[in-house]
Design a protein that fits this description.
This protein is an all-alpha fold. Helix content is 56%, strand content 0%.
Amino acid sequence: MRKGAGPGRTRADHPAVAAQLIAAPARSRQVRELADLIGRPALSPTDLRFLDLDDAFRHRFLAQETKENRSLDESLDRAWEVLLTLPRSQLGMMPADLLDDHARPQDEEPT
């Protein structure tokens, strides 16, 4: 994918979004397993955001109607929606300039 994505081929954010979208759900699955062991109330605010990301990933990104023809741009936009479920500090694979362009005020660390 690295040779077929990015500036001149797809959107400039494509490689970073794809990498982060692989890593974040993997961490979400770990948090879900932890929640099963210790209970949801014992999770940190950031862990809870990873559970939110898992739900958003399944319902907002993966879910697609059989007749829906989603473009790459729309898929990347949805990926951003999903990734921004997390605080900025948890998006370590995303360059700061991309985060600055897409972040919302509520994307800060939970208190």
